[in-house]
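We modelled the chain as a single entity of 318 amino acids. Its sequence is:
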Amino acid sequence: MNSIRFRHRLFYLILGLTIGSVAFFGMEAENEHNFIDRIIERIDADMSTLDPSDRSEAFVKEAVHYTNFLLKRRSNIFNSTADEIPWKQKLFPSTLRASIDGQGSCGGYSNFLMTILKRKGYSVKACQLKVGDAYGGHQTVCVALAGKLVVVDPLFEEMFLDENGHLSDINEVGRRWTFYSSRIADPSYRSDYTYENGFRFTNWDKFGGFSRGIYRLLILVKGKEWTDQVSLRPFFLDVFSIYFFLSVTTLFILVIYRIRKKLRIAFIRWDVRRLQQAPAFSEPEAVQNESGSAIFRTVSKKAQLLPRDGEAVKVKSE
């Protein structure tokens, strides 16, 4: 009995925590979506006078400008260190943290820009440059635009424009790095942040053998060229929506489990009542008379089930 009570209390504790998680993550996700939507509305308002055919590229340029404008000023105000990251951010790392305290450097700027562009409907990739002999020394953003994979750098507000003032494909930037590097306006841009040295879209070594195994599996299934173009980071930008989905899924499983258990108990009780209302039945039983020969007598039996949950069926001779 104590074991049954403990399981019931544990179930309702888990159920309560799950409901609270659904509410918390849902509100956090909605808050972040509203924040990004307000930025998108402002950018759209700034482009209202442009021709519709020019707005797709113009939106990317304006998003880079807004990201740099907003985050640099936050960074100048707060200028906090990694040791001061609050527990909420450690447990639930939001990509919008950089918009609060300006932290994150190139990664924070890139994640914030990708969040805006992805919310708007663009297909984006996180680009990790090879600095020296190692990848990941600097991160920028690639955007699928008009059949090209254009690259922008929100940290330095660099857009790598071609001779006609249009955004350039990342492969073109790598091939003509001398031309594009000569047009970088920010004097703080490091000379070793070069695209001709190489770049990648996903760090397949991040989780050791597990992630490398997935990489090899994808190569077998889809080929190396396709796998090398995969960027996983954009799928994990909206962390609170991910947690909200997992919480709702868990709540659904718990509710289905409870409903099935209730239905099973209801069926057992119905079956108990049916059997209790059934007429008694008789069956022969062999006994010996005084002379030792076998005779049969009729013994009346009736199935009696206790209606309480968890008790076994008992058969009693009358």
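As a brief sanity check on the tokenised model: The first strand starts at residue 124 and ends at 131. DSSP finds ten helices and seven strands in the chain.
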